[in-house]
């Protein structure tokens, strides 16, 4: 019997796959990429058709040696890296290092790590797809040419340590442009009028002023509102129209990489990076007791919403047994993704819908459980029958004015029994039931409530909305969204505060410089067009070095002009009142990975740094110190005493000047996504105390409230 070596990227994946193959198979891990362009130089021969110079990645020598030794002991080698361009490139690099023939059937792919998928894959090996390799190679070289030419320019002209990337710079521009919109926004006043109506024997209901003389009403100030209220005095209110409809509502499609990151941000408060790290763990395999390692979800870098027939049938049987035949749609749902997608992949789904989240909970970490439950519920709902809604629109006339009430109740929950998609404003859907009235009924206005509003600027981007706009504008690919978001924060171009992205002064300076001197690099449409060309390379429709030449020739000329045109840009540090205890100079405020900190301007002679303590104006309840804003090792905000380490008082929640009405203790403000922020007492013995606010900021976990002995 012949021996086969299977090479994957990670040990976890190797362990999961190994249990599905017989004793004649050996599975080893390459630990990701094995070759790359050198870090010390550009590594691209522009004059020789953009020929790349690859070297073995530092630290991979022992792994390559082990793999070469393993190759000599087998009759066949199968390369089982991930089923995307990056995985194809890893497989190709392995053929070069291990002396394999890339035209031989040495490459296998699978969308999920299950017994059937693995055993089917090893029976269908194919040669390396050189077009997909070239697409990845073109992206890598493009990013290297931009980064290794543009970044040094920024070092010389602005500040050392800066970087500019082909895609990351566009992401920073989006955030800067949004901030400009917000700062330039001028609020406009408008008013609404809500009436509370009732008919004897019926429950009261609300309706909003909708029209005046059959035209939509626009109330711009209090004078206009006062006139309307005066007109409505003494008016009779009559139900003039009732429209009842039955509406069908379909479920959301199963997850793609982008929609998973968006929904995990909305519902779980996960960053894009955290979502992908946890999803990778679920894909590569989780130890399920005696069953061993099992991949719980399908491949997690995809823009396809396609679902296999096998999965559809299994889910249909599960829905029938769990919820009944009425919850099975008449026709299986297949949602088409927008734009050009790599439809060889499936959507992200559980490898078996029968592994419900509760049965898996004992084997999963808290984060793994939350994300698996989200993926499982979204997929299950996507295969369920639509929800049926009974909607009612009721018009109430009062002279020339018309009020409208809208009601909606769930007649048949369908997929909503399992899952409802989140939205970016954090609001939740509520049923609104209107009383059973008839056309011609008279109602009484119990109250008329005018309310002043002001138009709001566009919201700042969050993880969810930034990923959404990157996808909509065709910037990047599923595998790049999380690295983009992480990189622009790490470089100090943007900061995340309360889930929203704000551009830093440095980010604004760099974007303005690139806009002026490198308009194509920072151009959204240009970046999207280049992404399309990379897709065409993968399809064999474009030559990879031709795409590189079309980009690089004008870029190189622009680079020469910019070198002469750009003067030295000064980014002045903000000087603080804090005196350096080592050299006596006023310390300056610097921006680091986790926000602002104080540093001595005498660097490198004086290397003194310290946290920037932002006062809250609230006194410490345990001593005479003041509560200040701090950051944990992971960059998360918390509040602690300025006298630390003598006083160790800390809380995650914002301290207030309010005193507890029961014990006069400190009240803190707990933020809520959907309701008003809640004040509660931190005194664990106080009867009014809610959940404890005490926290161990270093460990990132809240301490449970201490139980008092009875």
Summed up:
By secondary structure, the protein is of the alpha+beta class. Helix content is 32%, strand content 23%. It has 17 helices and 31 strands.
Description:
By secondary structure, this protein is of the alpha+beta class. The chain folds into 6 domains: 4-128, Rossmann fold (3-Layer(aba) Sandwich), CATH 3.40.50; 138-184 and 459-565, Orthogonal Bundle (Topoisomerase I, domain 2), CATH 1.10.460; 189-250 and 387-454, Topoisomerase I, domain 3 (Distorted Sandwich), CATH 2.70.20.10; 257-382, Topoisomerase I, domain 4 (Orthogonal Bundle); 573-612, no CATH class; 620-710, no CATH class. Helices cover 32% and strands 23% of the residues. It is built from 17 helices and 31 strands. The strands form 10 sheets. Strands 8-9-15-14-11-16 form a 6-stranded antiparallel beta barrel. A 4-stranded antiparallel sheet has the order 19-20-21-22, with no helix packed on it. The longest helix has 28 residues, at 130-157. The chain is globular and about 95 Å long. The chain starts with a strand and ends in an 8-residue tail after the last strand.
């Amino acid at each position: 019997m012949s021996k086969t070596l299977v090479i994957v990227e990670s040990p976890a994946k190797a362990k999961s796959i190994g249990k599905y193959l017989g004793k004649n198979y050996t599975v080893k891990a390459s630990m990701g990429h094995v070759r790359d362009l050198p870090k010390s130089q550009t590594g691209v021969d522009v004059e020789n058709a953009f020929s790349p110079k690859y070297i073995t990645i530092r630290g991979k020598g022992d792994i390559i040696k082990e793999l070469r030794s393993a190759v000599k002991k087998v009759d066949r080698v199968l390369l089982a890296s991930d089923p995307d361009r990056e995985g194809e490139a890893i497989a190709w690099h392995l053929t070069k290092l291990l002396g394999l023939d890339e035209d031989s059937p040495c490459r296998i792919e699978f969308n999920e790590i299950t017994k059937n998928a693995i055993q089917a894959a090893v029976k269908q090996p194919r040669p390396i797809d050189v077009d997909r390799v070239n697409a990845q190679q073109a992206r890598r070289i493009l990013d290297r040419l931009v980064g290794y030419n543009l970044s040094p320019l920024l070092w010389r002209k602005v500040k050392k340590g800066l970087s500019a990337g082909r895609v990351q710079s566009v992401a920073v521009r989006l955030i800067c442009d949004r901030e400009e919109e917000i700062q330039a926004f001028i609020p406009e006043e408008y008013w609404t009028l809500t009436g509370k109506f009732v008919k004897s024997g019926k429950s009261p209901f609300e309706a909003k002023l909708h029209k005046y003389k059959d035209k939509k009403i626009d109330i711009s100030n209090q004078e206009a509102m006062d006139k309307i209220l005066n007109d409505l005095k003494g008016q009779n209110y009559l139900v003039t129209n009732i429209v009842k409809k039955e509406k069908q509502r379909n479920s959301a499609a199963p997850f793609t990489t982008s929609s998973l990151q968006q929904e995990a941000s909305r519902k779980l408060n996960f960053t894009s990076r955290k979502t992908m790290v946890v999803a990778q763990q679920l894909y590569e395999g989780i130890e399920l007791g005696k069953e061993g390692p099992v991949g719980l979800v399908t491949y997690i870098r995809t823009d396809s919403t396609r679902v296999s027939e096998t999965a559809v049938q299994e889910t249909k049987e599960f829905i029938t047994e769990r919820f009944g035949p009425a919850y099975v749609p008449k026709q299986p749902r297949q949602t088409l993704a927008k734009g050009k997608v790599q439809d060889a992949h499936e959507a992200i789904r559980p490898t078996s819908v029968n592994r419900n989240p509760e049965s898996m909970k004992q084997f999963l970490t808290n984060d793994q459980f939350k994300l698996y439950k989200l993926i499982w519920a979204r997929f299950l709902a996507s295969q369920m029958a639509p929800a049926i809604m009974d909607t009612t629109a009721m018009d109430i006339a009062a002279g020339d004015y018309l009020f409208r009430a809208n009601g909606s109740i769930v007649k048949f929950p369908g997929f909503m029994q399992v899952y409802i998609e989140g939205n970016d404003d954090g609001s939740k859907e509520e049923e609104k039931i209107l009383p059973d009235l008839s056309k011609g009924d008279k109602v009484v206005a119990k109250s008329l409530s005018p309310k002043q509003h002001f138009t709001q600027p566009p919201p700042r981007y969050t993880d969810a909305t930034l990923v959404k706009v990157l996808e909509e504008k065709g910037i990047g690919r599923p595998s790049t969204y999380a690295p983009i978001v992480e990189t622009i924060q790490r470089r100090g171009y943007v900061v995340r505060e309360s889930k929203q992205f704000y551009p830093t002064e440095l980010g604004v300076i760099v974007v303005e410089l690139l806009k002026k001197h490198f308009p194509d690099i920072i151009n959204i449409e240009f970046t999207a067009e280049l992404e399309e060309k990379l897709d065409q390379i993968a399809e064999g429709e474009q030559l990879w070095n031709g795409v590189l030449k079309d980009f690089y020739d004008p870029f190189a000329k622009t680079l020469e002009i910019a070198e002469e045109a750009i003067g030295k840009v000064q980014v002045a540090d903000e000087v603080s009142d804090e005196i350096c205890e080592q050299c006596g100079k006023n310390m300056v405020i610097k921006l680091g990975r986790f926000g602002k900190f104080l540093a001595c301007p005498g660097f490198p002679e004086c290397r003194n740094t310290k946290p920037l303590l932002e006062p809250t104006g609230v006194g410490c309840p345990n001593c005479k110190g003041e509560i200040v804003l701090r950051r944990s090792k992971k960059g998360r905000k918390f509040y602690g005493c300025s006298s630390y380490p003598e006083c160790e008082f800390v809380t995650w929640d914002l301290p207030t000047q309010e005193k507890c009405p029961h014990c006069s203790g400190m009240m803190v403000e707990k933020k809520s996504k959907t309701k008003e922020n809640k004040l509660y007492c931190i005194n664990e013995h106080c009867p009014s105390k809610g959940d404890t606010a005490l926290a161990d900021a270093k460990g990132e976990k809240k301490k449970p409230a201490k139980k008092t002995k009875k």
